[in-house]
Automatic annotation (TrEMBL):
It comes from Streptomyces sannanensis. Pfam families: AA_permease_2. Its main location: membrane. It comes from the Bacteria. InterPro entries: AA/rel_permease1 (IPR002293), APC_superfamily (IPR050367). Keywords: Cell membrane, Membrane, Transmembrane, Transmembrane helix. It is a multi-pass membrane protein. The chain crosses the membrane at residues 30-57, 78-100, 132-150, 162-182, 194-216, 237-258, 283-304, 334-354, 360-387, 399-424, 436-458. This is APC family permease.
Length: 479
């Protein structure tokens, strides 16, 4: 594949995949319902283990740039089975995220049309809470984003830079104004993690907050297309730092403007409601436009690394060769990009059985969050094992490549395990509902179970070299 990305292109990919505007617009309301008026505290607390894990990612990509990223690194260092599961849950989790983000995108479009006084089309009344309407509109955006991604990661990065500039300008302007004119009394207690209501709220809030940071590692999946592997590391850290500052800034502003009940009740329409509290039309529509751009950009930024992950798996022989087909002109894994998009479209259509936008988002975020903690932790452990010799030879470098990743991994594993137990203990029967703990647990169980089945087929059916050698293949020879 063509090396066409620099550090700022990498920042655009990572930041768009993380989708801060979407997380602010939707995630803050969901988290407020759990942790109360402690949004800045939970975002800061979740950043610490992510920062430690990012140090491991950065050292791994410098040592071995690989489209498979976590899948290859964990497979080489710990176990091919764990490596495959890491890659599998990452891919499947991202496809689920893409499927559900189509609903968010469509809902934002319908909200924007409503603010423009367009309430019906061809006799059909538009409803932003209609999963069917929102999903259908979002699917059109998803397909368009995939077609742009086929043309090359540099084209996608160039588009996303301009979208990010608009999004961040709107967020900073509205939240800055909200900090000044908001009538809710400011309190330093908002930044105190010890004031979070309960251990269960802390664990669930942490997983939701980690989910908001999810995506920074996208730049590491395109490391074979980055001109300098160190640019991938720089891009990831810059994107993470910007995310933290935005989350703290916006979380504080939201709590200055909105009482807790209004913040929690508006959920998926939180950013639009926030804008309407601060400005009249047409200015009030700007946050909603930013949300729509963010959701659309995150769809594109998600399909890019996911296709690269499947490309690496196909290259290793654990999946079919179709995933390795590179476009003759654009030099991108075009077949994989379109296949991933097709899977997301199919899943989005299946998600229509869940009746409301909030239920779709809540079920996906809770379930995928456990798996994000799982594969982040495994990647961090792989970094610590791989670079453990630095504890003797370079203690300062070991803080970033060994100690930080280990502390981050332990934290995320503990939080993920506690949340899984909370889900299990919260119900005594299964029900197809986002509020049912057993339903929330079923999604990660199915993802892991399907990964084991595919891995078994790759090991004994395909006889993939990835398993027989015990190492993930790589286009590099750094190790």
């Amino acid at each position: 594949m063509r090396k066409s990305l620099g550090v700022w292109g990498g920042v655009a990919i990572a930041a768009s995949s993380t989708a801060a505007t979407t997380s602010v617009g939707i995630g803050l309301g969901l988290m407020a319902a759990i942790v109360g008026l402690h949004l800045p505290a939970i975002m800061l607390l979740a950043f610490l283990p992510i920062l430690g894990i990012a140090g491991g990612y950065g050292r791994l990509v410098r040592d071995n740039p690989n489209a498979g990223s976590s899948y290859s690194w964990v497979g080489r260092t710990l176990s091919p089975w764990l490596g495959f599961l890491t890659g599998w849950v990452n891919v499947v989790g991202t496809v689920v995220f893409m499927a559900y983000t189509t609903t968010v995108t469509g809902s934002a479009i319908i909200q924007l049309l409503g603010q423009a006084s367009v309430h019906s089309v061809a006799g059909l009344r538009l409803d932003p809470n209609s999963t069917v309407q929102s999903t259908c509109l979002g699917l059109a955006v998803l397909i368009g984003a995939a077609l742009v991604a086929v043309r090359g990661v540099h084209h996608a990065a160039a588009l996303q830079k301009w979208l990010l500039i608009f999004e961040y300008a709107v967020l900073i302007a509205f939240c800055g104004y909200g900090l000044i004119v908001g009538d809710q009394p400011f309190s330093l207690d908002w930044f105190n993690p010890f004031a979070i209501p309960s251990l269960s709220a802390l664990a669930q809030g942490m997983v939701l907050a980690v989910f908001c940071y999810w995506g920074f590692e996208s730049i590491f999946s395109v490391s074979e297309e980055v001109e300098d592997p160190r640019d991938a590391s720089r891009g990831g850290f810059i994107a993470l730092t910007v995310m933290l500052l935005l989350f703290l800034f916006c979380g504080t502003a939201f709590q200055r403007v909105l009482p807790l009940d209004e913040l929690a009740d508006n959920g998926a329409q939180g950013l639009a409601y926030f804008g309407e509290k601060l400005a009249d039309q047409p200015l009030a529509a700007l946050p909603l436009i930013a949300l729509m751009f963010s959701a659309a950009a995150s769809l594109q930024a998600s399909v890019i690394p996911t296709a690269r992950g499947m490309y690496a798996m196909g290259r290793d022989g654990v999946l079919g060769r179709v995933w390795t087909r590179v476009h003759p002109r654009y030099e991108t894994p075009a077949a994989g990009t379109l296949l991933i998009t097709a899977f997301a479209v199919a899943l989005a259509l299946l998600s229509l059985v869940i009746p409301t936008v909030n239920d779709v988002i809540y079920a996906a975020v809770n379930s995928i969050g456990i798996l994000v903690a799982f594969y982040y932790a495994l990647t961090a452990i792989a970094a610590a094992v791989r670079f453990r010799h630095l504890l003797r030879t370079s203690p300062q470098e070991a803080l970033r490549a060994v100690v930080g990743p280990v502390l981050g991994a332990v934290t995320l594993l503990a939080v993920g395990a506690y949340l899984a137990w909370t889900f299990y203990d919260s119900a005594d029967h299964f029900e197809l509902s986002a509020d049912n703990g057993w339903f929330a647990l079923l999604i990660p169980v199915l993802m892991l179970g399907s990964g084991l089945l595919v891995a078994a087929w790759a090991r004994w059916g395909r006889r993939a070299p990835y398993f027989s050698r015990g190492y993930g293949t790589s286009p590099c020879t750094a190790d």
